[in-house]
Amino acid sequence: MSIFEYAPAPESRSIVDIKGSYGLFVNGEFTDGHGTPFKTVNPATEEVLAEVAEADASDVDAAVKAARKAYDKVWGPMPGRERAKYLYRIARILQERAREISVLETIDNGKPIKESRDVDVPTAAAFFFYYAGWADKLEHSGYGSTPLGVAGQVIPWNFPLLMLAWKIAPALACGNTVVLKPAETTPLTALLFAEICQQADLPLGVVNIITGAGATGETLVGHPGIDKVAFTGSTGVGKAIARTVAGSNKKVTLELGGKAANIVFDDAPMDQAVEGIVNGIFFNQGHVCCAGSRLLVQESVADEVLERLKRRMSTLRLGDPLDKNTDVGAINSAAQLARIHELSDIGEAEGAGRWSPECELPANGFWFPPTVFTGVSQAHRIAREEIFGPVLSVLTFRTPSEAVEKANNTPYGLSAGIWTDKGSRILDIAGRLRAGVVWANTFNKFDPTSPFGGYKESGYGREGGRHGLAAYLKGADA
Amino acid sequence: MSSRIDVRKTYKLFIGGAFPRSESGYSYVVNDHKGAFVANAALASRKDARDALGAARKAQAGWAGRAAYNRAQILYRVAEVMEDRRPQFVQAVQQSEGLSGSKAERVVDEAVDRWVWYAGWADKLAQVVGNANPVAGPFFNLSTPEPTGVVAVLAPERSSLLGLVSVLAPVIVSGNTAVLVSSYSRPLPAVNLAEVLATSDVPGGVVNVLTGKAATVAPWLAAHMDVNAIDLTGVAGDAALATDLEVAAADNLKRVRRAPAAEPDWSAEPGLEPMTAFLETKTVWHPMGV
After folding, report:
1. pLDDT score recorded for residue B2
2. Which DSSP helix (H) or strand (E) runs through B132?
3. What is the average pLDDT across B71-95?
4. Which of A92, A257, A423, B217 sits CB 3.0–4.6 Å from A386 for a disulfide?
5. pLDDT number for residue B236
6. Are A451 and B242 within 8 A, CB to CB?
7. Does the keyword Nuclease apply (chain B) (predicted)?
């Protein structure tokens, strides 16, 4: 515990108006779903927030038809410069309503308000702003300017609004219309986004939001009326999607799991490296596909790094996500918490050393303390499987080549980190790592202008930047 | 008076820079377009495919690690040697595809020219498909293309040389290595090309050529966990097989270049897609400031 106690500094939730129940957003209006409604809860308190409609096959069909009509009649034929203005409008409304959206995101997701306020919402707005500018410049992209048609998009619960922006902004900029399914545990900001589309007077059917769980997503992905599947989520589901779309003409991009190596060399700037390690694995409770979940530290500095890391972890504040001083919020769901417990217990059973700072967990809600495992070998399951929680596995290495070999010894290839003062080493190691994003002397940085995506079983395609357009244009592949 | 008996050639596989017979001991009869016997070609087996993949994996890092300038020169050297053996290719294409002499010559010219075209891409691809990204913050941020790794290539069935070159060159020019299954009914130009590759400074294992049936070899390639991507062009028109291969490829999320409904017009300008389908984009961030 730190020497000074902080007084509680909770953000007011009065700015958010959560309705008792929510429908689907199809063809510009909210409609009842024909499936069995489900409840979304605040993972920090287990309070039921709202009842949300479930889209069944007929609802998915209606949404795809609405999107097709909007594509054929309105959005496809619309000049790019007009499409651009709608996207700019959406970006501006996201900025104008930023406080409201971040509070709602934190309540529904469990992430600290300082992250939703300073990262998720501004970056989501930035994505719309960036891609708005592409809408009338596609012929300069190198990918042509022919849209695919209707995009079916399925997004995860770790960055509900941000992932929505990553999917919808480039799709609309390229002239496609969309049917998007948010995760069943975090649907509320997507439904608020539907209201934003109404506020922006976006033509009916251009954006459709359908809520539901895995079955709804499967129905959407398998629907013959869509031309494109974009998915962010687990590698297991990504493989299932790849099987589903086999033999079809649907274009697919997949952003899947990761088990990133964060490599610390003996000459690393130590304070920054420790901050980077913490940011790499404890940001967003470790619910990050590119989280630096494997720390590879050079043997000669391993003790020092660990000591500093533990000291830093002891100052992390876990608790009320709406508190402005909270660093670590709630685990998103009971199911995810159970998964983190299971893998951590396996880590212990397989002989790794487990450590967490002293940390009082709230009585209600889903919580897991920041945890570090030492003495981890490459064979340990906690070094191989994605935990998707605030759990760090520490391995050591002696030579740069050993670091590269261990870093690449995974079926995943989404991201990696390098910490060293030596520029030539950074460039050498960055070139040898099989990962789509390499952060050198920094970690977990995102920007709409910067392509993001994986090698190997972390999926295919890139989101963000000029490369992100390729996913939504005909004949493009990058 | 006795006339001279010609010396016939045994057509073999091309694996790791060597020309082995099929491990299985099987061969199959290759006829010309009129149905007359031409040769016995090696019938590649699952084990041959595995050996070829091993050779391709072994060669990949070294090939990708060469300077782009060097890869460009080696590919250009292939074109030089192809040109040098032009009569042989013309004869093989004529025999395989039943084209007239002048048509076969045009096809060979086009194939050599295409190889030259791809050779030039080796040191330009990164400039055309890479990016400096102006991120909002004090960071240096660069996206560059990298080869995806080992690529299985099913060469087109009909276009035995131009089609073959059009699917092979774009795979290796960026630093991938390839295991290629040639046209089943028209495999001889592929073996001739392999002989050119073997004498053109292409490192052993960068290209491996299997003559045989896509329907029997391709499922092993598609399901193999150490293959990074597969080009299904060769099963154009066979939607059922193409779908099966795509499903098998999902097991390790291979990059798939899908089979077209029909074999494309190979005389058309290829564009970037045959190359970009087998690239990864890597984005490197570094803070900026003193």
Report:
1. 77
2. strand B131-132
3. 97
4. A257
5. 96
6. no
7. no
Q: Find chain A residues with C-beta within 8 A of B133's C-beta.
A: 447, 449-451, 465
Q: Does the beta carbon of A235 lie under 8 angstroms from any beta carbon of chain B?
A: yes
pLDDT of residue A474: 94
> What pLDDT is attached to residue A2?
53
Measured torsion, CA atoms of residues A105, A108, A109, A111, in degrees rounded to the nearest 10: 60
Q: Does B29 touch chain A (CB under 8 A)?
A: no
b vs e for A365-389, b when ≥16 Cβ sit within 10 Å of the residue's Cβ? bbbbbbbbbbebeeebbbbebbbbb
Say if the Cβ atoms of B276 and A247 lie within 8 Å: no
Per-residue pLDDT at B230: 98
Phi-psi domain of A332 (left: phi exceeds 0; alpha: psi -120 through 50; beta: other): alpha
Q: What is the dihedral of CA B199, B204, B208, B209, to 10 degrees?
A: 30
Q: Which residues of A touch B132 (CB under 8 A)?
A: none
Q: Which of B174, B238, B282 to mutate to test the interface with A (most CBs of A within 10 A)?
A: B282
Q: Does B286 contact A at CB distance below 8 Å?
A: yes
The mean per-residue pLDDT over the stretch B237-263 comes to 97
State whether A447 and B141 contact (CB < 8 Å).
Answer: yes
- Alpha helices of A246-301 — where are they, by DSSP H? 270-282
Beta carbons within 10 angstroms of residue A349's beta carbon: 9
Contact across the interface for B287 and A441, Cβ inside 8 Å: yes
Residue A108 three-state SS = helix
DSSP structural state of residue A154: E
Please name the member of B129, B246, B286 whose beta carbon is closest to the beta carbon of A441.
Answer: B286
Write down the pLDDT at residue A477: 66
The sign of the CA dihedral A131, A137, A142, A144 is: positive
Q: What is the ipTM of this complex?
A: 0.96
Q: Do B253 and A462 touch (CB under 8 A)?
A: no
What's the mean per-residue pLDDT of chain A?
Answer: 97
Q: Is B288 helix (H, G, I), strand (E, B) or coil?
A: coil
pLDDT value for B110: 98
**Closest to A281 (Cα-Cα) out of A269, A294, A290, A293:** A293
Nearest residue of B to residue A465, measured between CA atoms: B133
| Mean pLDDT calculated for residue range B221-240 | 97
Specify whether A405 is catalytic: no
Task: For chain B, give the percent of residues with pLDDT over 70.
Answer: 100
CB contact under 8 A, A246 and B243: yes
- DSSP 8-state assignment for residue A75: I
